[in-house]
Automatic annotation (TrEMBL):
This is histidine kinase. Its EC number is 2.7.13.3. It catalyses: ATP + protein L-histidine = ADP + protein N-phospho-L-histidine. Residues 20-222 form the Histidine kinase domain. GO terms for biological process: sporulation resulting in formation of a cellular spore. It is an enzyme of class 2 (transferase). Keywords: ATP-binding, Kinase, Nucleotide-binding, Phosphoprotein, Sporulation, Transferase, Two-component regulatory system.
Length: 222
């Protein structure tokens, strides 16, 4: 694993991305091919095989649509947007998913800030982080979302009660397609970082003292 990490550090981002895509698409393709061959040979477990193949195709669909997003040219549709309203929208969107796991999203709005941003991109940032927070939590509990101003920056903390992130995983979070989840696809955090960079902002990941992690989104004040 250590060898892998050193190698990936040397590889360019484009190279990593290409290697990741090749890997992520080859696996489902191999699996689909195998099941097609079984069907061709006349095995009688059709329903089961079709289901697996559809699942594999869906994986490839997710990967390709996420890739299209990353490869989009840097469009500049930045407008002054009200941040609390934007976060309200995201929390409303993810509340049902949180509810299924008895997780409550506590969104405490402090500053009524506007940000100069591409609304859908910044929404994507909060969707990615909140989804990860929900997925990380194994027990019912709370995800806190707080915003505040520090100097000339707007900080939004998303604090979960999951297991936190192991040291060796933290270093890999920027790599495209890095995931520890069985059904994970990986580019979520890379896209998140990229969007924030495009907005003159950044992402900080902190370990909570008790349990869980804090994802801190930092955006410049307009
Ligand atoms: P995916 O969600 O598809 O795995 P991401 O890029 O969104 O891809 O996240 C990459 C990895 O970062 C996850 O697989 C997980 O190991 C780790 N991670 C992200 N958010 C959290 C969190 N809130 N708590 C613990 N681990 C996390
Ligand atoms: Mg994710």
């Amino acid at each position: 694993a250590e060898e892998m990490m050193i190698r990936s550090e040397k590889m360019s981002v484009a190279g990593q991305l290409a290697a990741g895509i090749a890997h992520e698409i080859r696996n489902p393709l191999t699996s689909i091919k195998g099941f097609l061959q079984l069907l061709q040979a006349g095995v009688n477990r059709e329903d089961e095989y079709y289901k697996i193949m559809v699942d594999e195709i869906e994986k490839m669909e997710t990967i390709t649509s996420e890739l299209l997003f990353v490869s989009k040219p840097m469009t500049d549709h930045k407008e002054l947007e009200n941040l609390p309203e934007l976060i309200d929208d995201v929390v409303t969107l993810l509340n049902p998913q949180a509810g299924l796991k008895n997780i409550e999203i506590l969104w405490k709005q402090e500053s009524n800030q506007n940000v100069k941003c591409d609304r859908s991109q910044i929404k994507q940032v909060f969707i990615n982080i909140l989804k990860n927070a929900i997925e990380a939590m194994e027990k019912p509990g709370y995800i806190k979302v707080n915003d505040y101003i520090h100097h000339n920056e707007i900080l939004i903390d998303i604090i979960d009660e999951g297991p936190g992130i192991p040291e060796e995983v933290i270093h890999k979070l920027g790599e495209p397609f890095f995931t520890t989840k069985q059904n994970g696809t990986g580019p979520g955090l890379m896209i998140t970082r990229q969007i924030l960079e495009r907005h003159g902002g950044r992402l900080e990941i902190l370990q909570n003292e008790d349990t869980g992690s804090t994802f801190r989104v930092i955006l410049p004040k307009p």
